[in-house]
Write a structure and sequence with these properties.
Layout: H1 10-13, H2 47-56, E1 74-77, H3 78-85, E2 90-99, E3 109-115, H4 117-125, E4 129-132, H5 148-153
Parallel strand pairs: 1-2, 2-3, 3-4
Length: 154
């Protein structure tokens, strides 16, 4: 029989050792000793790092701004319109975006918030009509500035 050395578990090998082979214990913690990200937690001793900011200027701060995710619309293609209309001449697709894949032979009156150029052309070519309904955006009720204060000062 050949003698194969099996590696023992670290937990059993390190019994009695305070640091378990990591050296200084603070290094073995998660990110608890780090103090934050970048230059956080450096206090007044970070003057030597300020030269980095002076040299980089606008490139140091920002640069990784949050970008708005593109809106995802529920999609209906031109080829599906006849089936969705079900014999009707008018179809309401206000919650959908109408795209131009496929062909249409029936004249339909399509009501929608979003429509592509090609879809609009195909529907109108078949003798139909596209009505684009604009969403109403309600402004938040803010404080109205009165002219009374201006008149008092004069």
């Amino acid at each position: 029989m050949s003698s194969i050395n099996k590696k023992r578990k670290k937990s059993s090998r390190m019994r009695g050792s305070q640091t378990h082979g990591t050296g200084f214990m603070k290094k073995a913690r998660g990110s608890g000793h780090r103090g934050g990200f970048g230059m956080a937690g450096t206090g007044k001793r970070a003057d030597h790092k300020k030269s980095l900011i002076v040299n980089l200027k606008e490139r140091y701060f920002g640069g990784s701004a949050m970008k708005a995710k593109p809106k995802k619309y529920k999609v209906v293609n031109v080829e599906d319109l006849e089936r969705l209309a079900g014999g009707k001449k008018e179809i309401n697709l206000e919650k959908f975006k109408v795209l131009g894949r496929g062909e249409i032979k029936v004249a339909l009156k399509v009501k929608t918030n979003y429509v592509s150029k090609s879809a609009k052309e195909k529907i109108e070519k078949a003798g139909g009509e596209v009505i684009v309904v604009e969403k109403k955006i309600e402004k938040k009720a803010g404080k109205e500035k009165s002219d009374d204060k201006k008149e008092d000062k004069q």
